[in-house]
Amino acid sequence: MLIHHDILLFLAQRMTIVITISFLLSRHPAIRRFFANRTTTREDVYRLIVIFGGLSIIGTYAAIPIDGALANSRVIGPVLAGLLGGPLAGFGAGLIGGVHRFAMGGFTALACAISTITEGLLAGLIRRYHPQALSGTGAMITGLMAETIQMLIILAVARPFEDAVLLVSHIALPMITVNAVGIAVSVMLIQDIRSQEEQAGALEAQKSLRIANITLPLLRRGLNESSALAVANVVKDMTDLDAVALTDREKILAHVGLGADHHLAGQPILTRATEEALQTGGPVVASSQDEIHCAHPGCNLHAAVIVPLLSKDKPVGTLKLYRTKQVGIVDEELAKGLAHLFSTQLEIAELERQARLAATAEIRALQAQINPHFLFNALNTVASYVRTHPETARNLLIQLGDFFRKNLREPSQFVSLREELAHIESYLALEQARFEDRLQVIHDIEEVALSCPIPPLLLQPLVENALRHGLLPLREGGSVTIRAHRHADGHVDISVEDDGVGMTPEKVEQLLVRNGSAPCAVSGGIGLRNVHERLRSIYGPDYGLRIESKPGLGTICALRIPDKDISLLMAS
After folding, report:
1. Superfamily the domain 221-354 falls into
2. Residues with Cβ < 8 Å from 445, sequence gap 6 or more?
3. Where's it mainly located (predicted)?
4. Intrachain domains 221-354 and 440-568 with the same fold
5. Closest CA to 274 of 265, 256, 262, 286
């Protein structure tokens, strides 16, 4: 008869077989992905049942015959299944191991079958009510409890009772000790896998952020062949991947690395896995050349992870990372991280594009308000000359036509300050005809400021306001001064000043206030407020119109704009 330390030694040897098999299984990428995932889905539970039910059977075959029964490590599988996947996983794995043990017969067959199922279920309940991370100590305590219960079940169920007592007296201490240690070692092995995967994930996250930092300005141009090629080159250069590709919903946009000689930009998408990623919006792993579906005989790409690029939760393309062999969990995590960051960048690019469209639409709306306003005043002026000075009226109509011809340009097409001043001259020609010798126009313009790009029709409302509301009420008329000076900081200060009737502080305060969607009730407010809002819409909230006025002394309407190319302005 084997004494306790002999059974202990043999069980330890058998237990190492089970641990070794577990370790070898853990090397498989699919098993590592499973162990690395702390949350378990229904499919994961089924996998746990199969894997650890099989491990339980192996533990039974590695048993030591003793006293007509088997001293074994069968319990390790069901207990690990329960600790990882909960009651269902533990029960399922225990059922597989228990039924198998029952089929082998012996006076402890029924007791061992019941105890195997009970131990798996017990571990699952421990997982359910103590879902915190597993520890080696906790696993050891769970193993001690499970094996103690097994001994009690043998005593309660196995007959003859004397044989059961004799068996338990021989196997209880070795099995409780060895199997508890085996469960603890297995849990520590799983923890080590998780730790490795977390470290690898952290490194890949850092790499993803570095790649995202470089590709951010590239994807702000949107997803096209040019940006996709630049992004694919960055990803390929910063990783050890064999190939990197990006697609839209229909065709390959860029492919860098192995296979670039026949995976050409512009080709339609052929991979079923890519179509599946676009349809489901989830990542897909192609683990064989057939799944990649490349018909080229010399293609060395045998595996790929394909992740959709999303915009507003809808797939707009895919990111594909290729390997010549097998795709690892690190590749999958890298692909998911990059795709998430790229999707965010694409959404930002789309939002910026929509913001530019909205700004252009707002400028169109503001111009639409200005044009009828000016046309009404100009036609009144021309009408006053039709009978008394028809030639003057004709010339004024020519000036008016020239004014509106220039005004037909797109609102997004900026003009130079020189062009805007020429535009104002046409306007002033109309107004001077009305004011005659009561109007004096003074220009204080620096030559370096004339090239500054400005929105069209920016200054005309200011000049019109100075004439109509500043000078027109005065019988003797007055002067309008247009100033423009460029500063060393790259800004140009522009002002339109009059020495007319001026305004009270209260009226000045009301001029730039939007009164809902209705026109401002303050006289002269439409044009000035439009200029103010156009400046803020184009240049940002730090810009706008500034008005200074004193009753009886006149008004100064001033603005500051950056002397910068509009394309650079939009890009920034």
Report:
1. GAF domain (3.30.450.40)
2. 417, 421, 482, 483, 484
3. membrane
4. no
5. 286
